[in-house]
Amino acid sequence: MAIPSSSSSMQSLLRERKYPFIFLTGTLLLIFLTLISFSFSSSSSSSSSDLKIYSSSSTPTPVIAPSSVSGLPDQSEEERPFKWTLCKGPLAIDYIPCLDNHGAIKKLKSRQHMEHRERHCPYPAPRCLVPIPKGYKVPIPWPKSREMIWFDNVPHPKLVDYKKDQNWVQKDGEHFVFPGGGTQFKHGVSKYIKLIEKILPVVQWGKHVRVALDIGCGVASFGGALLDRDVITLSFAPKDEHEAQIQFALERGIPAILSVIGTKKLIFPDNVYDMIHCARCRIRWGADGGKPLLELNRVLRPGGYFVWSATPVYRKDEMHQGIWNSTISLTKSMCWELVARAITSSWFGLAIFQKPANSSCLETRHESEPPLCGKQGQPNSSWYMPLNNCISRLPANNSWPNTWPERLVRISTSLNDEPMSWETFQEDTKHWSALISDVYSNGIGINWTNVRNIMDMNAGYGGFAAALISMPVWVMNVVPIDMQDTLQVIYDRGLIGVYHDWCESFSTYPRTFDLVHTSFLFENLTKRCDMVEVVAEIDRILRPGGHLLVQGTLDTIKKMRVILVSLYWRVSLHQEQFLLGVKAFWRPGDGTIDR
Prior knowledge:
Helix 8 links the parallel strand 8 and strand 9. The protein is α/β, with parallel strands linked by helices. It has an eight-stranded mixed β-sheet. The protein is 29% helix and 17% strand. The protein is globular.
């Protein structure tokens, strides 16, 4: 039997008027050819780099997340290999892993020395994402944020009632406002600051005294006001019944961190603060053999000042006078001098002590209690170390730094005597000045007008922060514990910072930094801990719309990019070594990607 040709078959179909069959066949053939073409195109594109590369001289077009979860195209496992979940529980919105580890806290044998306010980090580090408060808004920009913040961003009204007689904070419609009061300066912090300089003129705010520490800071109005006088104050307080005081401070744009004087050393170097301030910080300085005051002595610069504004300074009853007398006895044994005291009324008074500038008094004391500490190989090792019960020795070279702003670029006290150290410092300063000017400030995609709180995850000599000094920002300089200890240099420059291990969570509230920066950190860090867990921590502390700026190898950046895309961040690459990520408003399960 003969097989009909294709042309004769088609003619037969036409004679029989089978047009629907012809149309269906043609349509299926067209779809088949289209699918083959799309598959070839996808295969070609997947073999090329998945990173978009831009020069720093052009404005980048970042990879932008879709506008809704339901409209997402199918994603491969290689592109989105991570499954994110929300942190759970009543404290999830303000979750701080190392301070909210209630399982570890319940097992503590004692809380007498504030052990329950210290760090107790979970292992492994959490990967969950903190929820965003309902109604959260882009923060009010600096300097207006110092006076008011959005209520919905820090929805904790307890302090309004708890401290209503002291003018800490007030609620005004959809805002919290900060009148500038405090427990010891309820009629205004400006008058309080002027009083300190009046009774001790040598303070010379912003010249002689540049770096200060405020203990039990409330909402950080003292540190906020000193910014106008070129004094940078790191305020700290524990996470306690004074609900969210550190979160208020950071939302205002004032440097602050969660910490406590308990059983462990503060995460600062020895001999770095020009002044330490305590206004009703509720610490018994003579407790436990005087360990709290001995810790202040450790971090206070030789010749530095301790300002104590508290009821024992001015109240005459037996209890308060007993506290005053025991404190005076301890300060004398440490060779501190009471250089000023002011009692202006029955409800206010302050005392100012000065730490000795040299060792002569300590070496000639009649009594050796507390004893001098032994010579230590690593004097600045304070990470998870117990408090001293001895007086820290003064360094051989303990001259006061140059006046501000000269001290920013002229360091003498903390660099090694070797010429190479000074040369390295100078080269580092020039490097960061050029990088900020040529790359970070132009074309990389950061809107610096929306940036106030910055964290440098591995600060080195603080060159990144120093190069930004003319901008209305402040930088939390972090020196990782497994890297060269340069934190004392940072303080001698007139900047602030802390020690930290990035395998653990940082002691801050969620959504408190506008920009997180790191330079070649992850190449070594990922040998000790998981990059996914570190990125989850960065997501926790960064505000929605905030920036992550990473300098690193292309291999590190590719790995980082995959994680950030899984979080629906906007991601772009510049000069094959700078990754810029912009945090989205997306949280798993709520259907929101970005605003």
